[in-house]
Amino acid sequence: MSYTPTRTCVGCGEKAPQSELLRLVRQDGQIILDPVRRLGGRGAWVHPRAACVRLGLTPGRVARSFRQSNLRTEAALAAALELVTPGEPGHGVQHGRVRATDEERKRVGS
């Protein structure tokens, strides 16, 4: 039997195999996407779903995940939203802020 690493999505809080999640890392005061999962440092994981990305990259969740406040998330948000599951609602950022709709919150159980 082989071991499959599991991680917790910062958006919805569900546990999933690491291979099903996107990795985010803190680098130079901002959060960036780590597509090959090889960058050093503290990481956080998020499902490739618009609702999870948008909820996971809110200031409070980012601060808790990375144990630091005032981190910039724009680059990670844009990169992750390009990779979300096709057909998922909620693509994009309005006025530079991450906002989840009520429908997205209900869907991920927040």
UniProtKB/TrEMBL annotation:
Region (Disordered): 86-110
Biased segments, Basic and acidic residues type: 99-110
Superkingdom of source: Bacteria
Residue ranges occupied by any YlxR domain in the UniProt entry: 7-70
Protein's recorded name: YlxR family protein
Species assigned in the record: Scrofimicrobium appendicitidis
